[in-house]
Amino acid sequence: MPRDGCRWSAWVALLAVVVLTTTGCVKRRMTIRTDPPGALVSVNGEELGPSPVSKSFTYYGDREVELVADGYERRRLVQPTPPPWWNNALTEFVTENLIPLTLRDEREFFYQLQPASTPPQTDVARRAEALRAQAQSRPPDPPPGLFEGLFSN
């Protein structure tokens, strides 16, 4: 009978070693795609590069995304990233530490950029003429007494 007890405790010890050494893992990754591709992507002020671009993340929550492309309107938005159903306050410890599998949470976001609106040619020409006239006009004289005492001997 003692041999069965030793065998049982050996299995329990082996199981404990396996559980403690094979911890769980969650890999989180977000990918941002744009139309047109190649827009410069920044997330929470960190420049990630041209789209499509991917980045690993640790925490769920809202992210501030900024997209910039030549000839397109700059786009700023807040992208929510809620946790999956298996990662909540009750199950997070188990999924992160005890399940001996790697869980993957891949998020993909797609954004359509709008072409930049250009003002009509007549407005551009009128603004250019106004700026040219302003640059060619003589600057106003300073108020009397503004520079008194600066250049005295």
Automatic annotation (TrEMBL):
Question: Which Pfam families does the UniProt entry name for this protein?
Answer: PEGA
- For the PEGA domain, which residue ranges apply? 30-73
* UniProt-listed InterPro entries: PEGA
Chain segments carrying region Disordered: 115-153
Source species, please?
Isosphaera pallida (strain ATCC 43644 / DSM 9630 / IS1B)
Q: Which domain of life is it from?
A: Bacteria
| Name under which the protein is recorded | PEGA domain protein
Q: Which PROSITE patterns match?
A: PROKAR_LIPOPROTEIN (PS51257)
